[in-house]
Design the sequence.
């Protein structure tokens, strides 16, 4: 009888130990697969990108280009058109107009603009477009005018590059900074002297200018077939 009781006692003891072990094993398994607690990180603060240059207006542009002139002395550019390329020397004496042209060249503004007004044996005018991309470029740069600088002794000789006045009511003939014209009239267009700022001249490519000036145009002097400026680059 004692033997039977002992055997029963051992069986119960071992059975309880097995159950406890399984319970512990299950507990360990649950601990292993439980995902660790992750501390939520605060959302990163979204910062707006800062502009590489100020948005220009007529007042701020003068200060901007005065400082720009001190550090950017490039004065030779190449204008690549549908008819060929034109090399231009810009005058250091007209520093605001030279700096403005160099600045816009580095911004890629002129690329994709057009010769939008051409008059044979007079001049070709460029820097505008009927494409919204041009308006968008201007919107990102700013809205400003440049004062005339006509007392440097430069004349509207054949090959002169000059800056037209703005289309808005403008008794002082402030210059539209995004546009320019090149004189192709034989003997020059000296009736323009004193009204518009000559800020450079063509050193190579007058044959290209003459070809552009000779194309067929509509009543507004816009070429019947668009003539694009493909690229403007600084060569020195």
Sequence:
């Amino acid at each position: 009888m004692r033997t039977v009781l002992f055997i029963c006692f051992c069986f119960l003891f071992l059975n309880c130990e097995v159950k406890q072990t399984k319970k512990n094993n299950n507990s360990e398994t649950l601990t292993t697969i439980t995902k660790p607690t992750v501390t939520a990180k605060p959302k990163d603060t979204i910062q707006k990108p800062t502009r590489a240059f100020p948005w220009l207006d007529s007042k701020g542009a003068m200060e901007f280009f005065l400082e720009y002139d001190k550090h950017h002395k490039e004065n030779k550019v190449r204008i690549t058109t549908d008819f060929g390329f034109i090399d231009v020397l810009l005058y250091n004496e007209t520093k605001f107009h030279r700096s403005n042209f160099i600045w816009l060249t580095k911004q890629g503004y002129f690329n994709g603009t057009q010769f939008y007004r051409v008059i044979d044996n007079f001049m070709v005018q460029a820097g505008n477009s009927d494409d919204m991309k041009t308006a968008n470029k201007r919107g990102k740069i700013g809205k400003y005018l440049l004062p005339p600088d006509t007392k440097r002794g430069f004349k509207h000789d054949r090959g002169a590059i000059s800056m037209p006045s703005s289309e808005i009511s403008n008794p002082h003939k402030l210059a539209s900074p995004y546009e320019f014209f090149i004189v192709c009239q034989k003997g020059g267009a000296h009736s323009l002297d004193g009204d518009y700022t000559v800020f450079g001249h063509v050193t190579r490519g007058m044959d290209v200018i003459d070809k552009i000036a000779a194309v067929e145009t509509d009543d507004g002097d816009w070429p019947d077939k668009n003539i694009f400026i493909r690229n403007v680059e600084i060569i020195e």
About this structure: Residues 56-234 form a domain with the Cyclophilin fold (CATH 2.40.100.10). The chain has one domain: 56-234. Helices lie at 2-33, 58-71, 95-106, 132-141, 206-213. The first helix runs from residue 2 to 33.
